[in-house]
């Protein structure tokens, strides 16, 4: 199934969180909250402004994003949970730390 998004909407697939704490305690499914981090799967064409111009979205396919807790509409594609939300519901784009990849001298 392919989803064609309208305007400033974004399709996000939730990322699963660790099932253990730092001390090794396993968290049961009933006690876990749904993660607020996901990967952008698809984006709409942009936001339609009042003057009729189209403003492109900041996010793109493959971006790792943080979103608001109760935002978006949930549905499943091929058994996998996804969310459709407005770009305004996204709080930020997560970027890899450049220092992490460098070797210490």
Give the strand line-up of the largest sheet: 6-7-1-2-5-8
Q: Strand tally, please? A: 8
Q: How many angstroms separate the termini?
A: 50 Å
**Would you identify the CATH architecture of the domain at 9-16 and 31-94?**
Roll
Provide the residue-averaged pLDDT: 78
Q: What would the principal axes of the Cα set say about the shape?
A: globular
Q: How is the biggest beta sheet arranged?
A: 6 strands, antiparallel
- Protein structure class: mainly beta
Write the layout of secondary structure elements.
Blueprint: E1 9-14, E2 37-43, E3 47-48, E4 54-55, E5 64-67, E6 73-77, E7 80-86, E8 90-94, H1 98-101
Antiparallel strand pairs: 1-2, 1-7, 2-5, 3-4, 5-8, 6-7
What does the model show?
By secondary structure, the chain is mainly beta. It has a domain at 9-16 and 31-94: GroES chaperonin (10 Kd Chaperonin, Protein Cpn10, Chain O, Roll). The chain is 4% helix and 36% strand. The protein contains 1 helix and 8 strands; from the N terminus they run ββββββββα. It has one helix at 98-101, and strands at 9-14, 37-43, 47-48, 54-55, 64-67, 73-77, 80-86, 90-94. It has a 6-stranded antiparallel beta sheet with strand order 6-7-1-2-5-8, with no helix packed on it. β6 and β7 (80-86) form a beta hairpin. The chain is globular, with a radius of gyration of 17 Å. The model has no long low-confidence stretch (mean pLDDT 78).
